[in-house]
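Try it yourself: sequence plus 1,3-dihydroxyacetonephosphate, in.
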Amino acid sequence: MRQILVAGNWKLNGSLDSITQLITGITAGEDDTGKTQIAVCPPFVYIPVVADLLADSKIAWGSQDVSDRDAGAFTGEVAGAMLRDFGCTYAIVGHSERRSLYAEDDAFTARKFAAARRAGLTPILCVGETLEEREQGITEDVVARQLDAVIKLEGIGAIGESVIAYEPVWAIGTGKTASPQQAQDVHAFIRGKLAGLDKAVADKVQILYGGSVKGANATELFAMADIDGGLIGGASLDAGEFLAICKAGG
Ligand code: 13P
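Structure, out:
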C-alpha cells in the first residue's frame, strides 16, 4: 500500500517569527498524525532555520523550486546540491504558478526534475489544467503532455522515484476544491497512463492532490483509491489546519 504524504507549500509567505511559531505548532501535534508522511516546503532562505527546528522530528522538508543547472554563472539560482546540503528531501518542480507567472514550460520543468534527481532530491512534479482547458475537455491531454515531457527526458523509471501532484489550476487558492470524484478521475488517468508504460511504477508512485485542501475536506479526498495525499498551500500556514489534514491521512 502507498503511504499518504502531506506536503505544505508555503509559497511566498512567512517571516522568521511566523515560521518558527508555525513549526513549533506543527511539531507539537505531530505525534497524533499516525503513519502520514509529512513535509514542508519553505521559501529558500528559511530552509536552514526549518532544518534546525525539525532536527528531532519525523517531518521532512523541501524546496519550492530548484535550478535546472548544477553550478556556474546563473545569477539568482539555487542548485539541488545546495538544497541537499541543508537536508532537503523534496523539491517541487513545475508548480502552476511557476508555469504561468514565470513562463516555465514543460521542457524546462523536465530539466528541473532531472536536476533535482542528480542532486539526490525527490522531485514533486506538479501537473494540472486551467479552467479554460477543463472546459474545453482537454484536461487529460494537458496532464499527459506535462508528464510526457519528463518521461521523455528522464524515463519512466524516474517517475517511480518521484512524487506527482495533480493540482487543477482553477482549484488553487480559490476555495474551489475539485470534488473527490473529479480529482480521483484525473488521478486514475495518470496512474493508468503510467501503468501502460510500467505497472510497477504506476503502483508505487504517490499521486498527491492539491487545490484548496483543508482539514474539512481532506478525509474524503484521501479516501479515494488513487489519491495518496495532498500538496497544501494556504492551509499549510496554519498549524491546526495542517495537522488536521495530516491526521486525515493517518
Ligand atoms: P491552496 O491549498 O492554497 O489552494 O494551494 C494549493 C497549491 O498550490 C499547493 O502547491
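One thing you can check immediately is this: The radius of gyration is 17 Å.
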